Amino acid sequence: MNELEFNIRLYLTGTMKSWTDRIDSTGKETPQRFILNAMTELFDSLSDDDLELIRLRYMERLTLSEVASRYLLHERTIRNHTNPTIKQVKNIIKQGNELSIK
């Protein structure tokens, strides 16, 4: 499981919030808090359909082909709906990692 998949799974299961609250109860902007807050903002902005596509890809671990078959869509359509979110999650993780280095 790569870092991207790991963080998405942590977020969608609620584990990221639980761990972040345990690690830091002060509410200060730690790398973990930054990632949690940014991912919350991102995932809250998604449509229910896009969130479901992300959930199927990263929680159910379905391939693009399997998701496309389930919804009778082209793989390209699934990719077009999920890639912008995935790119944003990668950027959030990168920014959070940069905070931890400082």
TrEMBL record:
GO biological process terms on file: DNA-templated transcription initiation
One GO MF term attached to the UniProt entry: DNA-binding transcription factor activity
Domain RNA polymerase sigma-70 region per the UniProt entry, residue ranges: 43-90
Transmembrane segments: none
InterPro entries documented for this protein: RNA_pol_sigma70_r4 (IPR007630), RNA_pol_sigma_r3/r4-like (IPR013324), WH-like_DNA-bd_sf (IPR036388)
The name this protein goes by in its record: Prophage protein
